[in-house]
Design a protein that fits this description.
- Helix content is 35%, strand content 13%.
- The protein is of the alpha/beta class and 415 residues long.
- It folds into 2 domains: 267 residues, Crotonobetainyl-coa:carnitine coa-transferase, domain 1 (Rossmann fold), CATH 3.40.50.10540; 83 residues, 2-Layer Sandwich (formyl-coa transferase, domain 3).
- The chain has a 6-stranded parallel beta sheet, with helices on both faces. Strands 7-8-9 form a 3-stranded antiparallel beta sheet, with helices on one face.
- A hairpin with a 3-residue loop joins strand 10 and strand 11.
- The longest helix is centred in the middle third of the chain and has 22 residues.
């Protein structure tokens, strides 16, 4: 069985996280990803947050697996010539530089189309057209400007960003979908096209339920939010702590051992269809005959009391015991899993969601695997390349240079 994107060549002009997330996903599916880096320094994340001196950081290795690295000075005339030849030889170019950076290199979209009319040119930007169009953006800025931070946090507390990289990695996933869609369209049209994903747009896309609630707010209080019925609602969707965000009330409750274990908690959803079983499990069968408790409408104003009773029960069980008891009863719940627990979980290793990779300088390390599983197209997770590890190989195989040309380019400082 062949890999899904085998035969597709990606010119990877990305750095840090959003762009590399996209190109690594394409590489996992078999695309030949050529990562272009500055001679001598490379991607800035090679040296950021190092845990081992003089070795590529985990920040870099976990975002650049399965790629080939070529060093290229695109400010030199020879470097520009090589870059143009790479554009001609590739199917896709991906970049996440500041606005206008590729244009200032001398390669606007119009010139790229002249060099290779079939090229798909994909970019991650901070913002789409509008007042912020020329602003730089980072992960937390995207979360703040995309609606996530304003709707995350304790009820009366500060806005909060999430530990999930929904701006960077989330937008990288969007860009990968845009690229494969443009490649499919190219099969029919014969021409490439521009693909652009803005991080603000990507975050807002993931916050769609909050945009839903903003519109619902005009017609009355949001009854599934913990502010109801005793709190007040303003003009905008409020922060809601650990409320579920959906029509089924949910909350995080303490479990046995919470006094010393910061992750001894579980999430429980009081879904109407399974409330009968939940009430029996926690020893509150009396609720089932009491009109003050036996309907969702009756419970809604008293959710704090409902979850207090659930927590009395969960505090007598470990988070895994809670899951073992409630799951067979079809009560939605899930333990709060720490990064240590996820790293050590055998099932995630078995599915390739967490992968151990061997690096020639770092040794063995863990990385995330492909979250998308295809039945007939294998996905392989390999290590990240050393800086410039494949420069000569790429110049020979892709650009078509002979040994004398490669030596001359090195002499000129182009590679």
């Amino acid at each position: 069985m062949g890999k899904a994107l085998e035969g597709i060549r990606i010119l990877d002009m990305t750095h840090v996280q959003s762009g590399p997330t996209c190109t690594q996903l394409l590489a996992w599916f078999g695309a030949d990803v050529i990562k272009v880096e500055r001679p001598g320094t490379g991607d800035a994340t090679r040296g950021q947050l190092r845990d081992i001196p003089d070795v590529d950081s985990l920040y870099f290795t976990m975002l650049n697996g399965n790629k080939r690295s070529v060093t290229l000075n695109t400010k030199s005339d020879k470097g520009k010539e090589i870059f143009a030849r790479l554009i001609k030889a590739c199917d896709v170019m991906v970049e996440n530089f500041a606005p206008g950076a590729i244009d200032r290199m001398g390669f606007p979209w119009e010139k790229i189309q002249e060099i290779n009319p079939r090229m798909v040119y994909a970019s991650v930007k901070g913002f789409g057209p509008g007042p912020y169009e020329d602003c730089k953006v980072y992960e937390n800025v995207a979360q703040c400007t995309g609606g996530s931070a304003s709707t995350t946090g304790e009820l009366e507390g500060f806005p909060m960003v999430t530990g999930a990289q929904i701006g960077d990695s989330g937008t990288g996933l969007n860009l990968a979908l845009g690229i494969v869609t443009a490649l499919l369209h190219r099969e029919r049209s014969g021409r490439g096209q521009r693909v652009t994903c803005a991080m603000q747009d990507g975050v807002l896309n993931l916050c769609r339920v909050k945009l839903r609630d903003q519109q619902r707010l005009a017609h009355g209080p949001l009854k599934e939010y913990p502010q109801y019925p005793h709190g007040e609602f303003g003009a905008a969707v409020p922060r809601a702590g650990n409320a579920s965000g959906g029509g089924q009330p949910g909350w995080i409750v303490r479990c046995k051992g919470w006094e010393t274990d910061p992750d001894a908690y579980t999430y429980v959803i009081t879904q109407a269809a399974s409330f009968h079983a939940l009430a029996k499990a926690i020893g509150r069968e009396d609720w089932l005959e009491d009109p003050e408790w036996n309907t969702p409408e009756a419970r809604l104003p008293k959710l704090d009391q409902v979850f207090a009773e659930i927590e009395k029960w969960t505090m007598t069980k470990t988070k895994f015991e809670v899951m073992d008891i409630l799951n067979p009863l079809n009560v939605p719940c899930g333990p709060i899993l720490s990064m240590q627990e996820l790293a050590e979980e055998p099932s995630l290793r078995a599915t390739g969601t967490v992968v151990e990779v061997d690096h020639p300088e770092r040794g063995k390390y863990l990385t995330v695997g492909n979250p998308i599983k295809l039945s007939d197209s294998p996905s392989e997770v390999g290590r990240s390349p050393l800086l410039g590890e494949h420069t000569d190989e790429i110049l020979r195989e892709v650009v078509g240079m002979d040994e004398d040309e490669i030596a001359a380019a090195r002499e000129e400082g182009a590679v």
